[in-house]
Amino acid sequence: QYKSTIDVLLTDIVMPHVRGSEVARRLMKSRRDLKVIFMSGYTEGEFGTSPEERRGPGITILQKPFELDALAGKIREVLQAQSRR
C-alpha cells in the first residue's frame, strides 16, 4: 500500500524474528532505489555482516546509541544522495 511513498528504510540489524537485511531485501524487490539505514548497538567488527548489511550505494550503518541530530543527518545524507542522481 505504501511502497511508492517509502524513500528510506530505518531498521535494526538484529531483531528477534528477522534480520534487518531480510526486511531490506524484501522491500528492495519492489523498490530497487530504496535507501537503507541499518542501526546497530554492536561495533562494526562484532556483528556478522551479510552483503546487504555492508556499506554500499544507498546503504549506511548508524551506530547506537545515537542522538536525534545524527539520525536526521543520516536521513538527509541518503536522501540528498538520491536527489543528486
What would a concise description of this structure say?
This protein is α/β, with parallel strands linked by helices and 85 residues long. Helices cover 32% and strands 19% of the residues. The protein has a single domain, classed as Response regulator (Rossmann fold).
Describe the overall structure.
By secondary structure, the protein is α/β, with parallel strands linked by helices. It has 2 helices and 3 strands; from the N terminus they run βαββα. It has helices at residues 20-30, 68-83, and strands at residues 8-12, 35-40, 59-63. It has a 3-stranded parallel beta sheet with strand order 1-2-3, with helices on both faces. The chain has one domain: Rossmann fold.
